[in-house]
Amino acid sequence: MSEGTWSGSLDPECDPGDISADGRANALRLFNLYRWLADLPPVVTEPTRDVQAQACALMMDANNDLSHEPPESWKCYSKAGADGARTSNISSGPGVASVLGYLIDPGNETTFGHRRIILANDLGPIGLGSTGKNGASCMQNIGGTGRAGKEWTAWPPPGVFPIQAYGDRWSSLSDTGWSIQSEDIELEDAEVTITSGGAPLAVDVEPLQGRYGSTNAIRIVPNGWDPEAGNTYSVSVSGISATIAYDVVFVDCE
């Protein structure tokens, strides 16, 4: 999918410009694809949020660095960009390519903040900014007004799941972990079993920190195994106030 064309420029002009309509639309299409897989409603972009996200992306690219609290000494600093940085998922990669990375979320294994925000009930509207194919990107997302109302959300989610969304060339969900998040169900003492073909599979389970996109969340790490396309994996959670049990059916979409 095309990353689109960036109309801005880096230091010294520091013009945030904009990402072309196809680049923004393609990134949004991927966000909504993954939310659809998780049985969540689509989100839309909002122009004022896009402006913040675009200024944020310029700052990340100009400084070849990532920060949610960029100092005023940064190249191409602006209030709009700083506001965007504080309220965005930020990436050193372009907008379209970064979407799957947020869902895998390497480096954030204690929180899965990027993933949980994308899968949040209250997500939307959002802002999307990018400095193009070789640039950086920001997804402005804090302060959403969505009302999905799901009791819990898992990743990978119940139902058919493309094996291509399980990982990229750098990492996979076997490395970072599966997850379940909820606003109302306390998950701290959850015990998780995963079976395939009737055989139990080893997993490590730990609560996730913070309130990123949900009040409660757990990380479920496959211990010594990877899912295979064509197989079904049954997940059951006990030790909590609700019943959570579902099947994930991995398929090869190529």
Features of the shown structure:
Immunoglobulin-like; alpha+beta; Pathogenesis-related Protein p14a; 254 residues; five-stranded mixed sheet; elongated; four-stranded antiparallel sheet; 6 helices; single chain
Descriptive overview:
By secondary structure, this protein is α+β, with helices and mostly antiparallel strands. It has 2 domains: 21-147, 3-Layer(aba) Sandwich (Pathogenesis-related Protein p14a), CATH 3.40.33; 152-251, Immunoglobulin-like. It is built from 6 helices and 12 strands. The chain has helices at 21-37, 47-63, 79-86, 95-104, 113-118, 173-176, and strands at residues 88-91, 127-130, 137-140, 153-155, 159-162, 178-182, 191-196, 199-201, 203-207, 216-222, 232-238, 244-251. It has a 5-stranded mixed β-sheet with strand order 5-12-11-7-8, with no helix packed on it. It has a 4-stranded antiparallel β-sheet with strand order 4-6-10-9. The chain has a 3-stranded antiparallel β-sheet with strand order 1-3-2. A hairpin with a 6-residue loop joins strand 2 and strand 3. Helix 1 (21-37) packs parallel to helix 4 (95-104) and helix 2 (47-63) crosses helix 3. The radius of gyration is 19 Å and the shape is elongated. It holds the Pfam family CAP. It comes from Sorangium cellulosum (strain So ce56).
Distance between the termini: 15 Å
Give the helices and strands as they follow along the chain: HHHEHHEEEEHEEEEEEE
Helix content: 10-25%
Largest sheet: 5 strands, mixed
Work out the strand percent.
Answer: 15-25%
Radius of gyration, taken over Cα atoms and rounded to an integer in Å: 19 Å
CATH architecture of the largest domain: 3-Layer(aba) Sandwich
In the sheet with the most strands, the strands line up as 5-12-11-7-8
Total strands: 12
Q: How does the helix and strand content classify structurally? A: alpha+beta
Pfam families: CAP
Protein name: Secreted protein
Domain SCP: 28-130
Organism: Sorangium cellulosum (strain So ce56) (Polyangium cellulosum (strain So ce56))
